[in-house]
Design goal:
One of its GO terms (molecular function) is ATP binding. This protein has one domain: Rossmann fold (3-Layer(aba) Sandwich), CATH 3.40.50. Helix content is about 30%, strand content about 25%. The structure holds adenosine-5'-triphosphate.
Length: about 260
């Protein structure tokens, strides 16, 4: 059970800087993600978005500054089950991959039940419930590799949700997904958010994303904007990109798959 109040910062980043060797990638980042928010983190290629996520996930240690997760300094934080992560590269199964949607989602429980334990009836019900939550019930028995990129991403969201995370972090989940499917996908995320899950979404897809998130942060080595979507549309946000607006407002992703 979650005993945090609505104003609590689930993520609290203070004065964070990060360097790969001598190369500075993040400078003096201050960012708070409140419980119940749906934050879109945007920025051009190479602006440090994935690096920041890796710092939040404890995979990289900041050169300076501190990160607090659920009120605990990250180096003492040991409730990683509260955080679900869906990566950019999740949708890379080929059509022969021998696992059904049900099996892939069940894998999300292994952290809880152990790799070789049998799933109880309760576990199976939970798996079915999250598959339903992401709108994939009719595909439950289908092989994951036979699904579209957008459908696969829904399955990976279900896999992350099955262990009941309070925070879901998504790194470019709509890469390779067509605009209509991406919109449906964001609407689904918005529904999850209304059910109480805090979301941090990294994306290039500014146009579609801002219709669904309730806060936006713009990163380009430094944090240039952090606020609500209305202020963002008043152009304070996009002006942070110094002429890269056009690129950001299209659905082109030079690094896309
Ligand atoms: N392991 C690494 N070693 C050295 N430099 C790196 C490493 N990973 C990333 N970088 C550099 O750090 C910068 C930020 O990279 P990062 O992947 O965080 O950006 P990003 O905003 O996620 O980019 P994209 O939108 O293209 O995925 C880039 O210039 C990148 O080349």
């Amino acid at each position: 059970m979650c005993k945090v109040d609505k104003n609590e910062n689930i993520i609290d980043i203070r004065s964070l800087s990060f360097q790969y060797g001598t190369r500075s990638v993040l400078e003096n980042i201050n960012l708070q993600v409140k419980k119940g928010s749906f934050l879109g983190l945007v920025g051009p290629n190479g602006s440090g978005k994935s690096t920041l996520l890796k710092c939040i996930l404890g995979l990289l240690q900041p050169t300076k500054g501190k990160i607090t997760l659920f009120d605990q300094p990250i180096n003492r934080f040991n409730h990683w089950e509260k955080i679900g992560f869906v990566s950019q590269k999740a949708n890379s199964f080929n059509s022969g991959f021998p696992a059904s949607v049900f099996e892939v989602v069940s894998m999300g429980l292994f952290r809880k039940v152990g790799l070789f334990r049998f799933l109880t009836r309760q576990h199976k019900e939970k798996v079915k419930k999250v598959i339903e939550l992401v709108g994939m019930t009719e595909y439950t028995k289908q092989n994951i590799g036979e699904l579209s990129g957008g459908q696969q991403q829904r399955v990976f969201i279900a896999r992350a949700l099955v262990s009941d995370p309070e925070l879901l972090i998504l790194d470019e989940p709509t890469v390779g997904v067509d605009i209509r499917s991406a919109n449906n996908f964001y609407a689904m995320l918005s529904d999850l958010n209304k059910k109480g899950i805090t979301l941090l979404l990294v994306t290039h897809d500014v146009t579609a994303m801002t219709e669904h998130v309730n806060a936006v942060a713009c990163l380009n080595k430094q944090l240039h904007f952090h606020g609500n979507t209305r202020d963002f549309h008043d152009n304070h946000g996009l002006s942070a990109f110094h002429g890269q607006e056009v690129h950001l407002l299209t659905h082109n992703h030079p690094g896309g798959e």
